[in-house]
């Protein structure tokens, strides 16, 4: 949008707003303070409010179609759907939270972004309806449900499956004399030299909004730091970021930028970088599986590119001490306002949105993988998407996007620090010092 993404520098404002909203009651709230009854309503009627971040013309129609279909099947229900872009959504949810007008259903990234709504009592506990032992819960891939699990309870409805891969142009690789995609970071860096000699920008990188670089750091951190340490540091109550692997990961990213990436990447958007890959100027582009459709003729790519691309996971260094089978990614999802008077109706609509028919429609219409099991078939997807789904099944775990899994202050320290690393204004040691300071601040806040 892509996919476009993850939480940027405005996340801190969102967090502040959520904290403020927790002091009051949203406009759709009940006043009892009790958990809403989520069982299917006997009479389906009323108005549901819903906000997504899928305003892109390639994706928005799917959500419009599903809401209209639900209204047609339930004439007593009206759904007020509002769809905004990725960056505007962060501002939107901040305003809605602060003004106590959180909608019945709202979008959320997995990780600490979602957990902040949980901690502020703004997200309904959906365990009774979507837990892994429930009828609805069993229809989802377990890893997708787990991404929205907090303290053993389930708060989100996953809407897609997404992971990060390096797409590559087969013709460019062949011209550069590269027979196979790299299986180590060292080989990737060496291949970048060959691609430059062949006249290509090795990797198209557009980091105008910060999150593309953070996706690299998500994967590199998973490789360079042991899982138990990552889990401890990503928790705002215990984060310290003192493991030397964090500097190693930043140094590795610095090497990728210097040897492979588009010059002045901070001044280029992700979409512009992707265009350089699509027009054959760049040999590789790090993108999400949600974006794969853009590389097909249906998504607007030339037949020459569409017929000659594949992908690989960003490879680990040969000496990585972390989890080399981890894969950057996570599902996006929706949460239900904990105080909504229409919580049961909201759940019923989300069940409809994620039934088998609509899950298959999601993949067929916009090329996203659905977390609903069995929804991707040869008739509604394309080979690379099916290959990605298979690859996701081989991953040991999802390494959730660094800027959503961590505390907002930590995420912002990484965002600004890595931007400086790209510009040459900061060193890996300086970046991690800023992250450590942010982690210390976060620890005081949650303590």
TrEMBL record:
Alphabetized Pfam families for the sequence: SBP_bac_1 (PF01547)
Residues making up the signal peptide according to the UniProt record: 1-21
Keyword Signal recorded: yes
The UniProt record lists the keyword Transport: yes
Key words of the record: Signal, Transport
Family listed: Belongs to the bacterial solute-binding protein 1 family.
Protein name, per record: Raffinose/stachyose/melibiose transport system substrate-binding protein
Species for this entry: Pedococcus cremeus
């Amino acid at each position: 949008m892509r996919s476009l993404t993850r939480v940027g520098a405005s996340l801190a404002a969102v967090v502040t707003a959520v904290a403020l909203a927790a002091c009051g009651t949203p406009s759709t709230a009940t006043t009892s303070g009790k958990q809403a009854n989520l069982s299917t309503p006997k009479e389906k009627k009323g108005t549901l409010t819903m906000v997504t971040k899928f305003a892109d013309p390639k994706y928005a129609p799917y959500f419009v179609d599903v809401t209209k279909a639900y209204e047609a099947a339930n004439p007593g229900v009206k759904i007020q759907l509002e769809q905004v872009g990725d960056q505007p959504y962060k501002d939107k949810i901040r305003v809605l939270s602060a003004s106590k007008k959180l909608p019945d259903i709202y979008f959320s990234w997995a990780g600490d972004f979602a957990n902040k709504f949980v901690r502020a009592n703004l997200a309904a506990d959906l365990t009774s309806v979507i837990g892994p032992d429930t009828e609805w819960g069993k229809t989802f891939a377990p890893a997708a449900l787990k991404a929205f699990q907090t303290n053993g309870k389930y708060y989100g409805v996953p809407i897609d499956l997404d992971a990060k891969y390096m797409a590559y142009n087969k013709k460019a690789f062949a011209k550069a004399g590269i027979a196979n995609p790299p299986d180590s970071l060292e080989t990737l860096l060496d291949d970048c030299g060959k691609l430059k000699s062949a006249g290509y920008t090795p990797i198209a990188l557009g980091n105008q909004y910060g999150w593309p670089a953070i996706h690299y750091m998500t994967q590199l951190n998973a490789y360079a730091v042991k899982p138990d340490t990552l889990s401890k540091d990503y928790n705002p109550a215990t984060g310290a970021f003192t493991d030397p692997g964090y500097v190693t990961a930043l140094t590795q990213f610095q090497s990728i930028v210097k040897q492979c990436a588009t010059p002045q990447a901070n001044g280029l958007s992700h979409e512009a970088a992707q265009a350089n890959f699509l027009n054959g100027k760049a040999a590789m582009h790090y993108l999400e599986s949600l974006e794969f459709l853009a590389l097909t003729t249906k998504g607007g790519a030339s037949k020459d590119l569409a017929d000659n691309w594949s992908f690989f996971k960003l490879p680990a260094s040969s000496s990585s001490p972390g989890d080399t089978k981890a894969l950057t990614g996570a599902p996006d999802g929706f949460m239900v306002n904990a105080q909504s008077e229409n919580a049961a109706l909201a759940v019923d609509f989300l069940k409809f949105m994620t039934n088998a028919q609509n899950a298959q429609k999601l993949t067929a219409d916009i090329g996203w993988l659905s977390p609903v099991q069995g929804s991707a078939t040869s008739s509604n997807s394309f080979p690379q998407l099916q290959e990605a789904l298979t690859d996701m099944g081989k991953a040991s775990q999802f390494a959730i996007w660094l800027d959503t899994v961590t505390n907002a202050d930590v995420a912002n320290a990484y965002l600004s620090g890595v931007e400086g690393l790209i510009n040459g204004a900061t060193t890996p040691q300086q970046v991690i010092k800023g992250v450590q300071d942010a982690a210390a601040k976060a620890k005081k806040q949650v303590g």
